[in-house]
Automatic annotation (TrEMBL):
Keyword Metal-binding attached: yes
Cofactors required: heme
Record protein name field: Cytochrome P450
Binding site for heme: C421
InterPro entries: Cyt_P450, Cyt_P450_CS, Cyt_P450_E_grp-IV, Cyt_P450_sf, Cytochrome_P450_Monoox
One Pfam family cited in the UniProt record for this chain: p450
Entry's family note: Belongs to the cytochrome P450 family.
Length: 474
């Protein structure tokens, strides 16, 4: 028999002053009295559900709620559970010491992020979060937004009417430049910053590797694995050079790296170079890929929905009158903001995440889950539940008009609870400014051809696609 998950029914807000993406209230589904635990059908001998999970990850995961609320999978040698019901996701994310960072996705991600904020165990999380939170205070956003606005303007300055661009690549370049400058504004001190290529290789490598049910395959000396290891080493070298240059100069550049260098815990201890390195890589990778993917998906959705696009143009022309968007414009751009919210519903970049049952057996939704088990939760799965989001396939930014606070555990593009994204406001600010400034001047029309599909990996990003740029008449 199910008992209501412990906790007060709400997620703690650990964002401390970050301005959130809109948080809509959605129709509340009646809470079942008993949550159903089941094993997904279709397991193959030895491989279990791994082939279906790897070949068609999105369809496979989105189909799981039809089988139960807590669904057991066999992924090669690994047993995993997927929390399909919002109440169970809420319990999973609220009890962050019972369900710690780890499991299928994060054990592999640790290889790259080290013990940075996103991968560190619960035992060290509070200390890290308190040290890093000042970098994400609300007062810092206008400064970051000013850097972003410059980078957005710089990225689109060379665009020409009729030019064809690779949209995801262009959005990656833009967000890498903006994120890198917010992190280390004075990077010219450390010489040129060739982060772009290394970041791209590392990001793709991580996304692919974390979804590999047979981790041994990641160690085979293929050219791809070599490239990935080299890019990781290059990225580490770049951040080490930056840390050394900043330490030597001793100047406060009012950026994230300066904050990390100045951070002190209650005992007056600072972060070691190794810890700062892990945080830099975490912020670069966690912040840039997610925002780039959001932007790329937004262009595909706007291209496919001319009526929303026209209303967006009206909003932008009225508010901005042809100039680039600034931080202070955001409250006057509600439709642009809702477009970002709805894009994140349909295509949450961090679409699947994992936890591990940390210390002894646990009880999830009334069912025993063994110590060490991987529990997965998927914002994509939740956002594609018809009982939570009526007309779930429709790109409808106005669904967020009337409802302003979601039922906990339903809309989770930034996760929830103590491990909720620390950079949510940075990411949504950057996406909103970029859409506003770019759509003020340009329409992006994807070249017809194959449908635009997401890559297969832990990050839901579109496969490369091209679009023609058309300058908007003024
Ligand atoms: C649209 C943009 C973004 C999306 C969709 C996104 C998504 C997420 C999600 C889902 C989590 C929770 C992971 C979990 O439950 O295991 C997370 C955590 C995190 N994100 Fe983001 N993120 C975005 C932007 C950013 C930015 C811009 C930064 C930094 C500059 C950032 C840094 C982090 C960090 C450090 C964590 C770990 C927080 C903790 O455990 O305390 N993210 N993000």
């Amino acid at each position: 028999m199910f008992t209501q998950p412990p906790g007060d029914g709400r997620f703690a807000d650990h964002g401390q002053g970050s301005c959130r993406s809109p948080t809509p209230t959605l129709k509340v589904t009646p809470v079942p009295t008993q949550y159903i635990l089941t094993t997904a059908p279709g397991a193959l001998p030895l491989l279990g559900h791994a082939p279906a999970f790897v070949r068609r990850p999105y369809e496979f995961v989105a189909g799981l709620p039809a089988h139960g609320d807590l669904v057991r999978l066999r992924l090669g040698p690994l047993d995993a559970y997927v929390a399909c019901h919002p109440d169970l996701v809420r319990q999973l994310l609220t009890e962050h010491r019972v369900y710690d960072k780890g499991g299928l996705i994060f054990d592999r991600a640790r290889e790259v992020f080290g013990d940075g904020l996103i991968t560190c165990p619960a035992s060290d999380h509070r200390r890290q979060r308190r040290l890093l939170q000042p970098a994400f205070h609300r007062e810092r956003l206008p400064g970051y937004a000013a850097i972003m606005a410059e980078e957005i303007a710089g990225a689109i300055a060379p665009w020409r009417n009729g030019q064809v661009i690779d949209v995801p690549a262009a959005m990656h370049r833009l967000t890498i430049a903006a994120t890198a400058r917010c992190l280390f504004a004075a990077h010219e001190q450390a010489g040129s910053l060739p982060v772009h290529d290394s970041m791209n290789i590392v990001i793709k490598g991580v996304a692919r590797r974390v979804m590999m049910p047979l981790p041994g395959l990641n160690r085979i000396p293929t050219p791809g694995n070599h490239r990935y290891q080299r890019a990781r080493a290059d990225l580490a070298e770049i951040t080490r050079r930056l840390i050394a240059a900043y330490r030597a100069a001793g100047t406060d550049h009012h950026d994230l790296l300066s904050i990390l260098l100045a951070a002190r815990d209650d005992d007056g201890r600072g972060l070691s170079d190794e810890e700062i390195h892990d945080q830099m890589v975490t912020f670069l990778l966690a912040g840039m890929e997610t925002t780039a993917a959001t932007l790329s998906w937004a262009w595909t959705l706007l291209a496919a929905h001319p009526s929303v696009r026209e209303r967006l143009h009206t909003e932008l022309d009225t508010v901005l009158d042809g100039r680039p968007a600034r931080h202070e414009d955001l409250p006057a751009l509600p439709l642009t903001t809702r477009i970002v919210t709805e894009t994140l519903r349909l295509y949450p970049p961090a679409w699947i995440l994992s936890r591990v049952v940390a210390d002894g057996d646990a009880e999830l939704g009334g069912h025993r889950v063994p110590a060490g088990a991987t529990i997965l939760y998927s914002p994509y799965l939740l956002h594609r539940r018809a009982d939570l989001f009526p007309a779930l396939d429709r790109f409808d930014p106005d669904r967020w008009l009337t409802n302003s606070r979601p039922t906990p555990g339903t809309y989770t593009p930034f996760g929830a609870g103590a491990r909720r994204c620390i950079g949510d406001a940075v990411g949504t600010t950057e996406a909103t400014l970029a859409i506003a400034t770019i759509a003020t001047h340009w329409s992006l029309t994807p070249i017809p051809g194959r449908p635009i599909r997401p890559t297969r990996g832990s990050s839901m990003t579109p496969r490369p696609f091209t679009a023609t740029l058309t300058r908007r008449p003024r």
